[in-house]
Write a structure and sequence with these properties.
The protein is mainly α. 62% of the residues lie in helices and 4% in strands.
Length: 325
């Protein structure tokens, strides 16, 4: 059994949430302004993404209006276009019918940025078609993406280093030590209109056959069950002393890349950064590989929470091998 992001659930929630929000926004008005978007939408990132789409559409329309008889790239013309953009940004006026698609997309993008930041940034890289963003694009991304800003900046720095599209994400996130922002806290503002939680957007997928784990049943099973209960308590940091283990020199925490952290948190721990951190802290107190494998088999694979053949599980176990070899 694996956990994967349920895009259909995300889209359905975005549509329902956007409808409720639009009812509120357009309750006493025919059009919405830029000020309304920034001040009346309870999730700030949603408002920013809605404005981002408006500005992107404006830039696209300007490009379509370019005439072969005039030079639009001269400093004078560019300055005038910027002045026009500044004036227009203060005079945004969008009716509900035209605003709804922008709002739904903004909610979808915000949820994706919260729940699966790596996938969000993969989509962003693809949107540039293999090219690095220009200076104006960089400024826009910094202005309109506020959640997990450290990841945004890491990606922009990697792009600036002329890393090719296939490697830019790995290069951007491999050195990051700061985890993504807490999912629960980021989801909370949505509850003002339509209650939800991160678990609503993850689905369990099953293989064709039940997982069979060749583990010998012995007294260790009870011991590992006790350990599992211990590491979920507030005294996790005391486990090493309690069990008499010494932490090995190479810790799993130091070996993890940011990409692996995102994948393991989302695919193996249902998006819970806290549960992931507790398990990693516990595993780093174990003195032998055998202890680690028995713990994972007992508490995750045998219980059907992880599928042994899943690539995420295999990669997690490969880190265990590296730690003890």
């Amino acid at each position: 059994m694996e956990n994967k992001l349920n895009h259909l659930a995300l889209e359905q929630y975005a549509a329902e949430y956007s409808g409720l929000l639009a009812d509120k926004l357009f309750n006493s008005k025919e059009v919405i302004t830029g000020k309304d978007i920034l001040e009346e939408i309870p999730v700030k990132q949603v408002g920013l993404f809605a404005l981002f789409q408006l500005f992107e559409k404006w830039k696209s329309e300007i490009n379509q209006l370019r005439s072969p008889y005039f030079n639009y790239d001269t400093p004078e013309v560019q300055n005038k276009l910027k002045e026009l953009m500044n004036v227009l940004s203060k005079n945004i006026s969008v009716p509900r019918e035209q605003f709804m698609p922008l709002l739904i997309k903004a909610v979808e993008d915000t949820l994706l940025l919260i729940l699966s930041p790596l996938e969000f940034y993969e989509n962003l890289v693809e949107s540039f078609g293999g090219s690095a963003p220009g200076m104006e694009d960089v400024k826009d991304l910094q202005k309109f993406i506020k959640i997990n800003g450290h990841m945004r900046d890491a990606l922009l720095n990697a792009w600036a280093s002329n890393v090719n599209e296939g490697e830019v994400l790995d290069r951007a996130f491999e050195g990051l030590t700061e985890p993504p922002e807490d999912v629960s806290n980021l989801i909370q503002p949505f509850n003002e209109l339509l209650p939800t939680e991160s678990a609503d957007f993850w689905e369990e997928t099953y293989g064709n056959e039940p997982v069979e784990t060749p583990i010998e049943e012995d007294e260790d099973e009870a011991n590992f069950e006790t350990v599992h209960k211990q590491f979920t308590s507030e005294r996790t940091t005391m486990l090493g002393d309690t069990l008499g283990f010494e932490t090995t020199k190479a810790s799993l925490k130091s070996m993890l890349t940011i990409n692996q952290k995102f994948m393991f948190v989302n695919d193996l721990f249902r998006g819970s950064q806290e549960d992931f951190a507790k398990v990693i802290d516990f595993l780093d107190t174990c003195e032998t590989k055998d202890v680690v494998i028995k713990f994972l088999n007992s508490n995750y694979i045998k219980r059907g929470q992880w599928k042994a053949e899943a690539p995420q599980v295999k990669e997690f176990l490969s880190l265990i091998d590296k730690k003890f070899n």
